[in-house]
Design goal:
alpha/beta; single chain; 8-stranded parallel barrel; TIM Barrel; 10 strands; two-stranded antiparallel ribbon
Length: 308
C-alpha cells in the first residue's frame, strides 16, 4: 500500500515529474501517451506522487503562452490509472489577481486536486499581475487545509538569500520544496544548512526538500536544462556526455545517484534533520524511457543511503 503524501514527506519522498500532453496534440496521441505513462508509473511501488508541471512560456512583456493542456485533468487521470497521489503546479504570477488564484485553488480542490505547488514568474524585472509566491501561499493554504491538501514551492539553491525566502514560504504554509534540476551536491547542502538553521532560530520545523534530477542524452539536453535555469558544472557535463551520446542516459543515472548520496552523506555528517527526497524529471516526451529508468534506480536506492 502506497504512503499518503503527508507520510512520504516525513521520510525520503520520491516524486516523478512527467511532461504533460501538449495542448495541440490529438486526442488519440494524448490517450496513448497517458496510458503508457500510467502503466509505467503503476509499476514503481516506491513512487509517492506524480508532480505535474505547468508548461508556460513568456514573451518580453511577461505574457504567458501555455504549452500544456488541462494539467488538472491530466493529473486526475494519472492518479486514477496509476493509483498514486498527484501534485499540480501553477504559475501564480500570470493570474489577474489573488482573488482569481483563490478561485482557481477552490476549483482545483473541487476537481480532486488537493496538493499544489505554487510557482513565481521567470523574471524579477517584470511587473506581473498575479500575487507573489508568498502572498499566494497565504491565499491557498486555507483552501487546502480542510481537505488535508499540502502546499509546495520551488527552491533555487544558487539564488542569493534563498534560505530566507524558504523560511518565509514555510511560515506561509509550504510543506515541501522541489529544487531546480541539480548536478552537484554542494549548493543544495549549503542551502539546507542555512535553511534548517533559520528554521531552528524561528522555532519551526523545516519543510521537506526534494532534489530534482533528470537524464541528459546529448548536448541539446544540456543547453535546454541550462535554459530552464539549471547550473551544470563542467565536470558534471563531461562525466555525463563524455563525447558518447549512446551512454549518456545511463551515466546521467549514475551521476544523479552520486549527487543524492553526497547530499545525504553530508547531511548526516552535519546532523541536519530536514527530510530530503527526490523529484525525477522527464524534461521532454522523448525522455520518458530514460526518466523511468532513473526513477526505478532511485526507487531501489533511496532507502539504502545513510539516514534512511
Amino acid at each position: 500500500m502506497r504512503r499518503t503524501l503527508a507520510q512520504s514527506l516525513e521520510r525520503r519522498p520520491l516524486f516523478f515529474e512527467p511532461v504533460p500532453p501538449s495542448a495541440r496534440a490529438s486526442p488519440t496521441r494524448i490517450a496513448g501517451y497517458v496510458a503508457d505513462l500510467a502503466e509505467r508509473l503503476s509499476a514503481v511501488p516506491r513512487l509517492d506522487a506524480a508532480d505535474i508541471p505547468e508548461l508556460v512560456d513568456e514573451n518580453h512583456d511577461g505574457r504567458p503562452y501555455y504549452r500544456s493542456g488541462d494539467t488538472r485533468a491530466f493529473a486526475r487521470t494519472i492518479s486514477e490509472r496509476a493509483g498514486i497521489e498527484v501534485v499540480v503546479n501553477k504559475v501564480v504570477a500570470h493570474l489577474p489577481s489573488a482573488e482569481a488564484l483563490g478561485g482557481w485553488a477552490r476549483e482545483s480542490v473541487g476537481r480532486g486536486c488537493h496538493h499544489l505547488v505554487l510557482v513565481g514568474g521567470s523574471s524579477r524585472y517584470i511587473p506581473y499581475p498575479g500575487p507573489t509566491v508568498l502572498e499566494a501561499n497565504r491565499v491557498v493554504r486555507p483552501v487546502l487545509e480542510p481537505v488535508g491538501g499540502l502546499l509546495g514551492n520551488i527552491a533555487i539553491p544558487q539564488r542569493t538569500g534563498e534560505a530566507h525566502r524558504m523560511l518565509g514560504k514555510t511560515r506561509a504554509g509550504a510543506a515541501f520544496f522541489t529544487t531546480q534540476i541539480l548536478f552537484d551536491a554542494e549548493s543544495v547542502l549549503k542551502l539546507a544548512r542555512e535553511y534548517e538553521g533559520l528554521c531552528r532560530q524561528a522555532g519551526r520545523p523545516p519543510a521537506a526538500l526534494l532534489l530534482s534530477v533528470a537524464p541528459l542524452a546529448d548536448d541539446g539536453d544540456a543547453e535546454f536544462v541550462r535554459w530552464l535555469g539549471a547550473d551544470i558544472p563542467e565536470s558534471a557535463e563531461r562525466a555525463i556526455l563524455n563525447g558518447d551520446e549512446t551512454g549518456a542516459a545511463g551515466r546521467s543515472v549514475a551521476h544523479a545517484l552520486k549527487v543524492w548520496s553526497e547530499v545525504v552523506d553530508g547531511a548526516a555528517r552535519e546532523g541536519l534533520e530536514l527530510a530530503f527526497g527526490v523529484n525525477v524529471e522527464q524534461i521532454t516526451q522523448r525522455h520518458l524511457g530514460s526518466a523511468i529508468d532513473m526513477l526505478q534506480a532511485f526507487a531501489t536506492a533511496i532507502d539504502r543511503t545513510p539516514g534512511a
